[in-house]
């Protein structure tokens, strides 16, 4: 049976970039079987020194092709070239973090000789690969997200099957090919493009999968987690509706550009994008108007142009959805400060809404579009309560010059990370990165992911010489 090809199109103009063969059930089974056979054959495991050399070679290759890779990521994913260049630089840094982690994380010594039972014993632990890793990725950072899932698997010594988002598979394929060129045998990293979602589900819920890494929709991720085979571990990263609390004493001149960048970056298609700003009533409308001015000044359009600041939504349907949500908010009583219209079938104006009702979707669901909502408050405890009112919880921020205010927000807001005087989308790739509640399960960040993809194995030695 002929399987229909996967057609990859540029979100900005719909141009066909590539047509890729999908995999049928027999091909997916062959990939899984070969990966599992590698894991079960301990003589085939790659020694740590070889993994380090492969990762080092990958860094050199990526550095030599950085502009080409950034342009490809911008074209297939819609993130502006200026930001896609940063993505490739981060990916290089991420692989270097993998190397550093391998060189510095080496198990633990378990105390012995502390009582009669443990006398004459020595105990220590080392790390082993957990099993085959299945990783499902998202479109919004098409190269760096793959590095965050595949790089740790290679570092940990796990065979990995990586399924990219169907809209952005080219960056994933490029990274896998770079690893192979760097010396990684092909069976250790295989890109999976299944012909159906059912086939993808069958693969990830197979008992031969030891670890499942998922970045994307909460409904899909939690649904797949419920079907995992007994013993399969997992890490899920979903979206949020990131809150920012702005105190009356905040340095607005220095920080409003950070709000704008954190909300409009990649057209708001970031899981920790600035979405809900709770600003003191004395400054709230001024904050909204200045954010509107900053958004209006941003150049929106072709992501492959070096001067574009805001690119397209990933699909025409997403552009329509964002517009529907904005119209709903305005009809419900929100004040439209700026934007609020489609520029084209794929691009949406950077938009600022003032005080939309809590019942609107822009207030209670992840927008994943270039829309920032500003809400006035008079009591900071009220602002914190409103920030905590949703089922999602990820990164948050507070802007203030007062240490006590910053600490109050930090100690009371529901978040896995709180940025003080920086936007919610701040991240470096060695820090823990995790969603709580419905926003995720497990802890990301490259060293943490490597740890999750390993098992800690103890040796206990009894000897009269100890």
Describe the protein's architecture and organization.
With 466 residues, this protein is of the alpha/beta class. The protein has two domains: 6-238 and 439-461, 3-Layer(aba) Sandwich (Aldehyde Dehydrogenase, Chain A, domain 1); 242-420, Aldehyde Dehydrogenase, Chain A, domain 2. Helices cover 39% and strands 20% of the residues. The protein is built from 15 helices and 20 strands. It has helices at 25-40, 48-64, 66-77, 81-104, 144-156, 170-181, 197-204, 218-225, 252-264, 284-296, 316-331, 361-364, 380-387, 403-412, 446-452; strands at residues 6-9, 16-20, 109-110, 121-129, 132-136, 160-163, 189-191, 209-215, 233-237, 242-246, 274-280, 335-338, 351-354, 371-377, 392-393, 395-399, 417-420, 436-437, 440-441, 454-462. The chain has a seven-stranded mixed beta sheet, sandwiched between helices. It has a six-stranded mixed beta sheet with strand order 7-6-5-8-9-19, sandwiched between helices. The model has no long low-confidence stretch (mean pLDDT 96).
Top-tier CATH class of the largest domain: Alpha Beta
Strand content: 15-25%
Decide which structural class fits the backbone: alpha/beta
Q: Going by CATH, what is the homologous superfamily of the largest domain?
A: Aldehyde Dehydrogenase, Chain A, domain 1
Fraction of residues in helix: 25-40%
Poorly predicted runs? none
How are the strands ordered across the major sheet?
Answer: 12-13-14-11-10-16-17
CATH topology of the largest domain: Aldehyde Dehydrogenase, Chain A, domain 1
Give me the number of helical elements: 15
How would you sum up the global shape? globular
* CATH A-level architecture of the largest domain: 3-Layer(aba) Sandwich
Task: Give the tally of structural domains.
Answer: 2
């Amino acid at each position: 049976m002929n399987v229909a090809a996967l057609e990859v199109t540029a979100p900005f103009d719909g141009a066909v970039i590539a047509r890729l063969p999908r995999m049928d059930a027999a091909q997916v089974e062959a990939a899984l079987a070969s990966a599992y056979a590698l894991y079960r054959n301990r003589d085939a495991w790659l020694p740590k020194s070889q993994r380090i050399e492969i990762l080092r070679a990958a860094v050199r290759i990526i550095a030599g092709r950085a502009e080409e890779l950034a342009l490809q990521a911008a074209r297939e994913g819609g993130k502006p070239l200026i930001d896609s260049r940063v993505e490739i630089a981060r990916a290089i840094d991420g692989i270097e973090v993998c190397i550093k982690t391998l060189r510095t994380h080496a198990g633990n010594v378990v105390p012995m000789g502390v009582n009669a039972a443990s006398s004459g014993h020595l105990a220590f632990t080392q790390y082993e690969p957990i099993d085959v890793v299945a990783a499902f990725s998202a479109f919004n950072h098409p190269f760096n997200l793959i590095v965050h899932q595949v790089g740790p698997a290679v570092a940990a010594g796990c065979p990995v099957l990586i399924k990219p988002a169907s809209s952005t598979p080219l960056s994933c394929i490029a990274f896998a090919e770079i690893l192979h060129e760097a010396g990684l045998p092909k069976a250790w990293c295989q890109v999976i493009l299944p012909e159906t979602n059912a086939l993808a589900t069958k693969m990830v819920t197979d008992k031969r999968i030891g670890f499942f890494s998922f970045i994307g929709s909460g409904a899909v991720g939690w649904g797949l987690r419920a079907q995992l085979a007994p013993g399969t571990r997992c890490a899920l990263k979903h979206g949020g509706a990131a809150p920012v609390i702005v105190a009356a004493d905040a340095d607005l001149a220095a920080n409003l550009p950070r709000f704008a960048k954190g909300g409009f970056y990649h057209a708001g298609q970031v899981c920790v994008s600035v979405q809900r700003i709770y600003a003191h009533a004395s400054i709230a409308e001024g904050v909204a108007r200045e954010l509107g001015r900053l958004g209006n000044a941003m150049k929106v359009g072709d992501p492959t142009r070096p001067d574009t600041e805001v690119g397209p939504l990933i699909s025409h349907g997403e552009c329509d959805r964002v517009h529907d949500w904005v119209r709903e908010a305005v009809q419900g009583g929100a004040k439209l400060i700026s934007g609020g219209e489609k520029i084209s079938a794929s691009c949406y104006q950077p938009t600022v809404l003032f005080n939309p009702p809590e019942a609107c979707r822009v207030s209670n669901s992840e927008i994943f579009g270039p829309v920032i909502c500003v809400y006035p408050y008079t009591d900071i405890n009220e602002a914190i309560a409103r920030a905590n009112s949703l089922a999602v919880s990820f990164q948050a921020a507070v802007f203030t010059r007062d240490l006590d205010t910053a600490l109050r927000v930090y100690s009371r807001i529901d978040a896995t990370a709180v940025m003080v005087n920086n936007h919610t989308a701040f991240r470096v790739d060695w820090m823990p990165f995790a969603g709580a509640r419905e926003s995720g399960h497990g802890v990301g960040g490259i060293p943490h992911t490597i740890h999750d993809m390993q098992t800690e194995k103890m040796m206990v030695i009894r000897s009269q010489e100890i």
